[in-house]
Each structure stands twice: as structure tokens, then as C-alpha cells.
Amino acid sequence: MSRQMVGHFVANVAPCGTLPGDAISGDVTTITRICLEFAVGMLDGRDISTKLQRLQDAASAWAREGVPIDTIHHSIAEGFKMGLDLVVSAASGKDFDDLLSGVRMVMEMLDTITAQISLAYVRELRGVISEHHTAVHTLTSALLGGHSTSTMARECGITVAEQYAVLALSIPPHREEANPALDAKVVARRKLRRVQAELAKRCTETALSLLSVDGGTVLIPIDTLDRAGLTTLVEQLSQAAQVGITAAVVEAPTTGIPDAADQAHELLDMVGRLEVTAGLYRFDELALEYQLTRPGPGREFLGSLLDPLDQYPELLETLQRHIANNLNRQRTARVLHVHTNTVDYRLKRIGQLTGFDPTQPSGLWYLRSALVARTYRNPTTSV
Predict the structure, then answer these.
(1) Tell me: the pLDDT tens digits for 89-142?
(2) HSE, side-chain direction, 13 A CA sphere, residue 335
(3) Calpha distance 234→226 (Å, rounded)
(4) CA separation, residue 349 to residues 110, 308, 309, 315 (Å)
(5) CATH number of 294-377
(6) Listing from the earlier edge strand, what are the strands of the sheet with 279-282?
(7) Domain residues of the chain, as ranges?
(8) What CATH architecture is 161-291?
(9) How many CB atoms sit inside 10 A of residue 10's CB?
(10) N or C: which end of the chain has fewer CB within 10 A?
């Protein structure tokens, strides 16, 4: 009967037909026999604990081998259908009460078998996933540290690319993290899991990441996503996180990943100080601003250009918001809760005090550069 059932599975349960022949003739047939013995044991009132353990052991092995769990459940259901067909084929009307009791018993068997297999399968799968995540984290840490990765890559089953887009991510708190009625840590972890799931969905297993609830680093092979694709990816991660994610990207060969990661995070820090809108920022777009963060007399001079605004914090905030909003007067007015005429007046006043007109390209360049340099001139100074 076990062989007949397995033949039926192969013919009628689509996924079963794709299993290797030795799996069909070996594990599947053996477990089918165990299930039949389990059913008979329940009907006879015998101890079935040993057979349940064998089912769990088999389910654990299937999880490690990658046998889909829906294939397992489909096969179990088909087996019970066949069993019911055999039982009712010779039944008559006078057997109704016995059949009703039998169906209840069959449902109990199905419930027990399905629960035991699912429990063992999920438990083993979690272990496999945990092992893989640990190996991937170790590999990512090695790449970021500039260490040899050939052995770890083989263990993970991941091919290390020749070049990577190195992304530094900043993930702000979710609004519900401030809700006193909720556990902020749980909300933050759920946010992180959504980001990780979206990253896996968009980049499969090619992306390597070290992320926390606040952000981290992601390595994406250079040929996985083009320039527009990386921008879209950050937007998709923001949607998944339900917060605006800010990212900075630097491209580098594998051997240059440590320096690229440092540079990407320095660029991200600079972007954060300017409080610009969320999105992806590239080194080639902000190379000049980045250079202004380097120590030297140039940075000191540029940082001092805004000293006349120290007595007028509302002017300094207006300048910062105006630049962060891409010079959109209406948006700046909304953020500051003032009229656009007030924004215009403040910008004019900034020009009078500093000598650089923020409505002119040359003046705006100096003022933007001064904002960047100012935050690095003194660690205690904020924009």
C-alpha cells in the first residue's frame, strides 16, 4: 500500500514528480509506511510516540534538503484521501455511524501528523536560516574589515563579486516607537525585519548587509542594480520601513570595500548634518561638499562665514531649511510655519549680514559650503 500511495503521489501531486528517484523510493516510501503504521496504531490504541519521533526526524531532514513543505502537506492529504476511499468503498448505509466515528478519527490523525511535521520542519528551518545568517554576517564583516573571504564565501554558498556598491543607511525611528502604549523595541525590530525582507526580495541573496534598527551597511554587487535601480531600491526600503531612509553610496572593488564603507558613512554623516530630505546620495554628486569636511584653513574660513548669524537663530534655521528643501520657498515656509514673504525677508537679511546673497548662485554656493564646514569646525556646534 505504501508503494501504491507513493505512485499516486508522483502521478497526482505535481511537486512530488520533481523529487529525485532515490528520494521517492527511499525516504518518501518509508515515511508513507510510517504514517500508515501510525494510523493503524492510533486505531488499535497502541503507543505511537516512537513513530511520531520518526516523523519529526524525517521532517527535519526534508527542511535541510529544501523539500517544500507544501509538497509534504499535499502528499499527506492525498494519502488520507486514498485511505478514506479504501474504507468507504465497501461501506453501506448501515455503516453510517461507524463511518462517522472513523472520519473523526481520521481528522485527529491528520491533525496530529500535520502538526508534528510542521513543528519539526519549522524548527529545523529556523536553525538553517540562523546558521546562514550567521555565516553571511561573518562574510560581510570580513569584507568590511578587508580580510580574506574565500573560505567563508564557500561556506555561505555566495560568490563574492569583483566590485560592490557600498551603501551606508540611516533608518530613523518609526512614529510608533514614541507611542508609550507600545513596546518601542518591538516596533523597531519589526521595522528592521521589513527592511531586511524587502532587501532580500529586491536583491535575492546577492546583497550582503550588517543592519541594526538605526541603519548600517549594505554591499550590493555592482552589476545587480544600475544607478536608477539603486535609487529605486532606497525608495522601496523606505516604503517597507514606513520611514524615510537616507543613504549614501560609494562604488569600489572588493579590496577597497573598507575604505569605501568609511567614506560612505562619512558622506552620510555630512548629509545628516545638512538635514536634507530622505533618499540616496552619491559621492560624485557631493564630492565638493565632502572635501569641505576635511580639516584645514579652508574649512575654518568657510565655517566662519555664518558667524554673523549667531545672534539670529531664526535666520540660520531658515537658510538651512531652504537649502535642505532644494530652494523651494513654499516648502520652506510650510516647514517653518511662516509666510513665503517672511522667507524672502529672512533670505534678504542673510545676504545683508553675511555679504553673500542666497538668491544668487555664487552666494548660495558659499552659504551652502559654509553650512557644511560649520558643523565640522567645532564638534559642539550645530547647524
Answers:
(1) 777 777 777 777 777 877 888 888 888 888 888 888 777 666 667 777 888 888
(2) 21
(3) 13
(4) 79, 11, 10, 8
(5) 1.10.10.2840
(6) 208-212, 215-221, 163-170, 246-253, 279-282
(7) 2-129, 161-291, 294-377
(8) 2-Layer Sandwich (3.30)
(9) 17
(10) N
